């Protein structure tokens, strides 16, 4: 590309192929349509961090968990860092009209298993999944290389295309795939670590929590008891989803709000700080656990794909191919532990290809 002389019109056409990666404030390559998604994701992570810092951090320091708490707070910045790295890294966009029929893009992530080598050397295009075939892209006007695919959201082809992530606001391709997996692992493990710290603190304050429960029942008495009986009869037995959700919200927020008022108004508890209310810790811990549970399937799936050195697009293409050919075999996607370990080492160490954007 460095030695290729382009006319003004050709240069303009190549630049236009990066319309989805125009820089935002000189930093981000983020897609125009999904910039707000990226900002929303960052704000959500910051919100979760603030909950921990306000309600769990001071209690952990007070109870002597200084080292563990420091690790938790520092590691909490990892999801933001890896998210930004994913967003600012150009994923491997193949420039329009850059690749001729006899020219292939450079790719440093090579397949390590025998099946992939067979696919690469197979000359019968109809006998391999579509993702491994060389196909012509009418939109980009190029001969799309193996493992590349066209992103409808960004309207260009991406080398090693995995998927378009709306949370990150960009395509996931050969250049930012590793950063994306880093982000998922960090986004899953950071709130899980915060949950474990919160649960330890809540167990330590179990005696105070029990005292607040007895205080609440002693004050509200029959009304609280009637509510829980009503929940058990109408919610649990009748399997009413809406009623269950409503009751669970009250069960979580009710003690939280009421014990907060006890801390403020009762002489016995006025000496305590707000963060010593055990229900604040429990609420934040449950919130962190919910985040981890939501991210667990996504994280495990992408880590599993990385252990096979295959993108989501490749796996879906192979599944469609098997359905067309009616080639179903139980356990055919399973790989040995040693091969999985070798693939993961290669995934986390392969040299990221140079961006074609840098050649412009």
TrEMBL record:
PROSITE patterns hit by this protein: DHHC
Domain notes: The DHHC domain is required for palmitoyltransferase activity.
Protein name per UniProt: Palmitoyltransferase
First and last residue of the signal peptide: none
Enzyme Commission numbers on file: 2.3.1.225
Location(s), subcellular: Endomembrane system
Catalyzed reaction equations: L-cysteinyl-[protein] + hexadecanoyl-CoA = S-hexadecanoyl-L-cysteinyl-[protein] + CoA
Group of enzyme by EC: transferase
Main location: membrane
Domain Palmitoyltransferase DHHC residues, every copy: 132-245
Gene Ontology cellular-component terms listed: endoplasmic reticulum; Golgi apparatus
TM helices/strands, residue ranges: 38-60, 66-88, 179-203, 209-230, 242-263, 279-298
Gene Ontology molecular function: any one: protein-cysteine S-palmitoyltransferase activity
Protein topology in the membrane: Multi-pass membrane protein
Entry superkingdom: Eukaryota
Keyword terms, alphabetized: Acyltransferase, Lipoprotein, Membrane, Palmitate, Transferase, Transmembrane, Transmembrane helix
